[in-house]
Amino acid sequence: MQKSKNAFTLIEALVSVAITAIGFAGVYALVSTSNLVMNDSIAREKLKFQNTEIIESLHADQENILEYNGKDLSSCNSIKTSKDKEKQLKRLKAWCEKLQGEVGDKRSQDKRIIRVVKQKVGENYVYVVSIELSGKSDKKSVFMKRIFNAD
After folding, report:
1. Integer Cα distance of 28 and 122 in angstroms
2. Are 117 and 58 in contact (CB under 8 A)?
3. N or C: which end of the chain has fewer CB within 10 A?
4. Cα 91 from chain centroid?
5. Dihedral in degrees, nearest 10, Cα atoms 58, 63, 64, 66
6. Tens place of pLDDT for every residue, the chain, 151 residues?
7. Are 89 and 61 spatial neighbours (Cβ–Cβ below 8 Å)?
8. Nearest to 52 by CA among 110, 8, 2, 98
9. How far is CA 92 from CA 87, 113, 141, in A?
């Protein structure tokens, strides 16, 4: 008596389900990793945009550029400026609030600092502006430096 084998056995069905499950697990891991990388990239781009916005504003306000030196954008309520510099204080607080909204509250290792130094280069003076912003993880840290001629 010979049996014809027209159907799958239970073991064959289980093996095919296991192979399919392994394939789906691989795809899920790939999608998860891709999602993390994309979110890190988006957060870094937000920091770059904020850096660029600050640099452009400082370039437009070179008359008061030294007022921004040493300002920490970590705590919006603790930012202070010299007397009669309300416009600069308003800008600093707006940048601080935007950072908190986009990357969250500052953690202990995060940096959100603006530095402006006036240096002599040859016969002329220049402002060296550096901004370092970070948030949520060490992977999302952005540093930008620009040099402006001091008139």
Report:
1. 59
2. no
3. N
4. 19
5. 80
6. 555 566 668 888 899 999 999 999 999 999 999 999 998 888 888 889 989 999 998 888 888 888 899 988 888 888 888 888 888 888 888 888 888 877 777 666 778 889 999 999 888 999 999 999 887 665 668 889 999 888 6
7. no
8. 98
9. 9, 11, 19
